[in-house]
Amino acid sequence: MIYDVIVVGGGIAGLMAAIEAKSDTSLRVAIVTKGNLFKSNSSLASGGINSVLDKNDKEGILKHINDTLKGSYGLADKKAVTYMCEQAPFIIEKLSDYGVEFDKNEDGTIAQRSFGGGSSKRTCYVGDKTGSAITQALIKKAKIVGVEFLVNNFVMNITKMNNKVSGIVVIRRFDSSVMVYPAKSVVLAGGGYAGLYRGFSTNAQDYTGDILSVALRAGLALKDMEFVQFHPTGFIKTSYLVSEAARGEGGYLVNSEGERFINELETRDVVSQAISKQIAEGKKVFIDLRHLTPEHIESKLPSLQKAALMQAGVDVTIELLPIKPVAHYTMGGIEANMTKTAIKGLFVCGECAVNGIHGANRLGGNSLLDGAVFGELAGKNALKYSKNKEFLPIDYNIVVKDQQKVDFIFDQDTTKNFNSMRISVGKTMFELAGIHRDKKSLFKALDYLQYLRRESGTLHCIDKGRNNNVELISILELQNALEIAQTVVLSARKRKESRGAHHRDDYTQVNNEYKHSILINELKKGFYKVWLQKNNLLGYLRRAIANNN
Ligand SMILES: Cc1cc2nc3c(=O)[nH]c(=O)nc-3n(C[C@H](O)[C@H](O)[C@H](O)COP(=O)(O)OP(=O)(O)OC[C@H]3O[C@@H](n4cnc5c(N)ncnc54)[C@H](O)[C@@H]3O)c2cc1C
Fold first, then answer.
1. Does the Cβ of 49 fall within 6 Å of ligand 1?
2. pLDDT tens digits for 192-206?
3. CA-based Rg of the chain, rounded to a whole angstrom?
4. CA neighbor of 194 nearest in space, from 223, 170, 227, 154
5. Which tens digits make up the pLDDT trace of 100-142?
6. What ligand 1 atom has the least distance to the C-alpha of 365?
7. C-alpha–C-alpha distance, residues 139 and 148, integer Å
8. Residue 159, helix vs strand vs coil
9. What global pTM score does this model have?
10. 268 included as an active-site residue
11. Residue 197 carries which DSSP code?
């Protein structure tokens, strides 16, 4: 099968991109997902999506721009942030047209709640199931306009010819065959890598940055990888997210002495570090909703109320809910300039991309917006690029290598356990490259990750069946995860300061020598180049190549 536009990822960014690309009905557009279509971080998003609702409210939009820039600690791109905040009212209108029923005020206008780091109430929501409501409406819309869905296809690599994209290589999970889908343009919308912190993350365990490693192998640079956002409030045992909506609706944070110790609506990095300090002092931390009426909790936070009861045995209307900070969102990703990359015909959007919005820290509610706005733009760019282009030849060297990799995993026997390795990656990342890091912990982390990466290359399936082989995909995901974990640690080691979500115990202050992004690419397997992006000739050339795309 061949497509004019292939979109990898069925979250908010991928769906918006595909719908937009399909606005030219003559184009064949497909979305590829590695699992079920409804399984994405987008569908888990609970609290809401930020937007000023009146497109003529210049002052409100300026505040949104300024809050986002402030939240980024100097590392956002003002042009991209301005574009996003100005597009936001149009996006909310579009989502409403596609069938998203945002909660309303009594007068029928869209209701908005407060979110951390926001200087005004601008988060639109559907109870505490905003992401699920949005993805369901977008899936419906994509089906209506004729987007095709290639679910359960695990993307291994992209192929290119003379620096122009020519298709993707996937494993069809149904029978483990390696397949190629030629395409004139490809949009990568494969989500983030917070799942690397397995056991300490709100993300599913398979959100470990597959698509970032695809980009690395294609020769692209990753950017801002050290910035991993810890959400202040996850359940102690299951890491289930207590959405910021809980604090936005008036919830308090209290310690075991019953004291409130932080302004609950500070940005996530500030609140997470304050909680981590309390925990280090031997105190427990709770979210306290007891002063809200049961009706208010039931109508605004129904999922949280249910999950607290089912997973933690806590009735939040009368009891305190114990919490801990958990890895939640990753600001780093594939370097891009307004969705364009250095490979022609290859566009990126959503959490896997760095379009210059979040810098060192993301504001709650800005991620769904980023995904929707830049997803739409990526779709437009892919459509424009694909028009009047011919299909390019596939580089079969890549396909053969991928086939050999799969055969190798099937062919031999092993006594090694990939699952225990996955758990070790999570623990290592949390303990040595988590909310707090320093030179010693990062060296230790790197050492261990290098060892695990070597070991992961010797893993084989115990189950040799080719139909829906979960082990095969888990091994490939683990190999990708280790490639990406190393980029996080190396970038964290390079940034000798504390900024936003990156806190170094050995360099506790902001140092303006580092008021630049860090870029990393992999020269050959296991050998990385890491550098500070300054506005030098190289930076200028990279932007020029992307702009020319
Ligand atoms: C619990 C939770 C609550 C959140 N709440 C909010 C909120 O209230 N507001 C907000 O703004 N943000 C929130 N976020 C963050 C936000 O949901 C995500 O950042 C955003 O949805 C990412 O969207 P995306 O389209 O980039 O990727 P995702 O929605 O993560 O989708 C990734 C897609 O890529 C596909 N994929 C990945 N790897 C491969 C591969 N190898 N082959 C094929 N396909 C692949 C997956 O199958 C999936 O379809 C929350 C996140 C979580 C986890």
1. yes
2. 999 999 999 999 889
3. 22
4. 227
5. 999 999 999 999 998 878 889 999 999 889 999 999 999 999 9
6. 11
7. 11
8. strand
9. 0.95
10. yes
11. G
